[in-house]
């Protein structure tokens, strides 16, 4: 994903394991892309 799709000010970054919400754009052109991406938090990984 290109950093410009990440919502917010400045350079957007995401980290492994982050849960995100996003909108899909470009479906009519057969090239769907994420846009307006917002990080919701980090998903915890529990191991037994």
TrEMBL record:
Gene3D superfamilies xref list: Nucleic acid-binding proteins (2.40.50.140)
Domain (CSD) ranges: 1-39
InterPro entries: CSP_DNA-bd, NA-bd_OB-fold
A single MF term (Gene Ontology): nucleic acid binding
Protein name as it appears in the record: CSD domain-containing protein
Naturally occurring in which organism (per UniProt): Rhodococcus opacus M213
